[in-house]
Model the fold of this input.
Amino acid sequence: MNPSDVTAAPAAPAAGSAARRGSPMKAVLTAETRLFLREPGSLFWILAFPSVLLVILGFVPAFREAQEDLGGRRVIDLYVPISILLALIMAGLQAMPPVLTAYRERGILRRMFTTPVRPSALLTAQIALHGAAALGSAILVTAVGRLAYGVELPGQPAGYLLALLLAIAAVLTLGATICALSRTTKAATAVGSVAYLVMMFTSGLWLPVRAMPGTLRRIVEATPFGAASQALDQAASGQWPSWVYLGIVALWTAVLGFTASRLFRWQ
Done:
């Protein structure tokens, strides 16, 4: 996937002219949605790949068998929330930072100051689009897990939704921080890729968090996606997610959001 190849240049003038006919925010969101939908690579990696991965993992017979050390649950049950977190990571760390950095690198954000549309509207639209794509992928993964492998729906839906929304906020603020720290699109892609690999590990993609050794598990649980993985897993099994895990994700979101807002430059 190479989100940095998005043709961003037409967005600003299109939004600027549309803003004269209606709401600036609506105009920007419409223009950005059209550009986003023209990128089949981003759509595949965010919306389809997590579900495809879940289907592939389900082909392993041992993953579909209940295990005593997992409390009678199956490995495939654990990988539903993990696949959801993968979708979030794809959206927030691989897709969004290169796009925003490209807008700034090409001078589009600076030129928007001369139009009725504020650059902050573009930033808001990108965050909303990638957040919505991640949420849509979460719904798709849940449906695939249920229909293909009989994975139970979250036993604590309210807690699950709360943990999911916090995780989405955390990954988007992390993506915004990467954009704020990266001066070029290449730098944003490189930093995002490193963060992507780290977050994939902490989310439990290669080894579920609850199966990690004691010390490693405690370290991972202090990360935003390690805590989010545990919170989602608890809610999926019918428990209210631990406020400790929810608090860790919320704290990371607040810190990253503050950092991004302080460091972000429009040019």
Remarks:
- Confidence is low (pLDDT under 50) at residues 1-22.
- The CA atoms of residues 235 and 266 lie 40 Å apart.
- The chain has one domain: 3-263.
